[in-house]
Amino acid sequence: MSAAPADPQLARYSFRRKLEEISACKGRATELISLYVSPGKQISDVMSYLRNEYAQSSNIKSRTTRKNVMWAIESLMGRVRAFKAPPTNGVAFFVGSKAVGADKSEPVTFIVEPPEPLNTYLYRCDSTFFIEPLLSMIHDPESWGLIVMDRAEVTIGALRGKRIDVLRNRQSLVPSKHGRGGQSAHRFERIIEHAAHEFFVKCGEMANELFLPQKEALKGILIGGPGATKEYFYKEGYLHYELQQKVVQPLFDVGYTDEYGLRELVEKATQTLHGLEIAEEKRLIQRLLVEIRKAESGLAAYGEVQVRRALAAGAVSELLLSEGIRRKLVALTCASCGHAFERVVPDDAVATASEGSCPTCGSGPLAASEPEDYIEHVYRSAAESGAAIRMISAESEEGEMLAKAFGGVAALLRYPLPSALPPRP
Ligand SMILES: [Zn+2]
Question: Ligand 1 centroid vs 339 CA: distance in angstroms?
Answer without folding.
Answer: 5
